[in-house]
C-alpha cells in the first residue's frame, strides 16, 4: 500500500499540530466510535517481541477524577519547592493538568510480565516493554489529534494515587494518565514555549552524522 502525497501531508499536519492540552477542554462528549478508533490506533503501536504490554482504563467517574486531581495538587505543591526564585513563580503560574475539565481520562498501563520472562528484543534492554507502552501513548495522541481531540499527559501525580483510585494491581506499571476531550482550539506552540519556560531546540542541533559531535550544543 502506497501513501499518496495528500495522505502524507495529513500525517505531517497531524504531527506538527499535535499539542499537549491542559486548558482548552470543552464540555462535549467524545462519541464511542471516536474513542474506539483512538484506542485501536493505540493498540496498533509497535511493541518489543510483539508483547503488547498495555491496557487502557477509561475514566469518566467524577470521584475518580477528583482523587487524581487531589494527587496532582499534592505532587505539584511538592514539585514547586524544587524550583527557586523567578523559576518557582513561573512554575506555579503554569497550568499543568486538565483532569477535571477533560470529559475523559485514559490511564495507560504496562504489564511487564505479559508474555513470560523471556521476551524477544528485551533480553539486554529490560525497559523495552515500558518504551512499547509509551509508543501506544504516542499513537493515541496522534490519532486523537486527527480526530480533533486534545490530549494532555499528566505525570505530576504519584503512581500510588492512580493505582489506588483505579484499582490497578501492584504487578502492573502505571505509564500515563491522559486527559482527553474536544477543545476550543489547538495552540500553535507548546504552552511551555508560549509562557517562556523553554524554547524549542533547533532540530539541526539534534541531528548528527556518523558519531556523537565533539561539542554538542544544548
Ligand atoms: C512523558 C511526558 C510527561 C508529561 C508531558 C509530556 C510527556 C511526553 N507533558 C507535556 C509536555 O509539557 C509537552 O509535551 C511539551 O511541553 C511540548 O508541548 P507539546 O506537546 O508539543 O504541545 C506534561 N504537561 C503537563 O502540563 N503536565 C505534565 O505532567 C506533563 N507530563
From TrEMBL:
The keyword NADP applies. It catalyses: FMNH2 + O2 = dialurate + 5,6-dimethylbenzimidazole + D-erythrose 4-phosphate + H(+). Residues 16-182 form the Nitroreductase domain. InterPro entries: BluB, Nitroreductase, Nitroreductase-like, Nitroreductase/BluB. This is 5,6-dimethylbenzimidazole synthase. Belongs to the BluB family. It is an enzyme of class 1 (oxidoreductase). One of its GO terms (biological process) is cobalamin biosynthetic process. GO terms for molecular function: 5,6-dimethylbenzimidazole synthase activity; nucleotide binding. NCBIfam families: BluB. Homooctamer. It holds the Pfam family Nitroreductase. Its EC number is 1.13.11.79. The keyword NAD applies.
Amino acid at each position: 500500500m502506497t501513501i499518496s502525497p495528500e495522505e502524507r501531508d495529513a500525517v505531517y499536519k497531524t504531527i506538527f499540530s499535535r499539542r499537549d492540552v491542559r486548558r482548552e477542554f470543552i464540555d462535549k462528549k467524545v462519541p464511542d466510535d471516536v474513542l474506539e478508533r483512538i484506542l485501536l490506533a493505540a493498540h496498533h503501536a509497535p511493541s518489543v517481541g510483539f508483547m503488547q504490554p498495555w491496557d487502557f482504563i477509561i475514566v469518566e467517574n467524577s470521584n475518580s477524577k477528583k482523587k487524581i486531581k487531589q494527587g496532582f495538587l499534592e505532587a505539584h505543591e511538592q514539585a514547586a519547592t524544587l524550583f527557586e526564585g523567578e523559576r518557582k513563580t513561573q512554575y506555579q503560574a503554569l497550568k499543568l493538568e486538565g483532569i477535571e475539565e477533560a470529559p475523559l481520562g485514559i490511564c495507560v498501563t504496562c504489564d511487564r510480565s505479559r508474555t513470560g520472562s523471556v521476551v524477544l528484543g528485551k533480553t539486554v534492554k529490560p525497559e523495552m516493554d515500558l518504551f512499547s507502552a509509551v509508543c501506544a501513548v504516542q499513537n493515541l495522541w496522534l490519532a486523537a489529534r486527527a480526530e480533533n481531540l486534545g490530549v494532555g499527559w499528566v505525570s505530576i501525580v504519584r503512581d500510588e494515587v492512580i493505582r489506588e483510585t483505579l484499582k490497578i494491581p501492584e504487578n502492573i506499571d502505571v505509564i500515563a494518565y491522559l486527559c482527553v476531550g474536544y477543545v476550543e482550539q489547538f495552540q500553535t506552540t507548546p504552552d511551555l514555549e508560549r509562557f517562556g519556560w523553554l524554547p524549542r531546540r533547533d532540530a539541526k542541533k539534534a541531528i548528527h552524522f556518523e558519531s556523537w559531535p565533539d561539542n554538542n550544543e544544548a
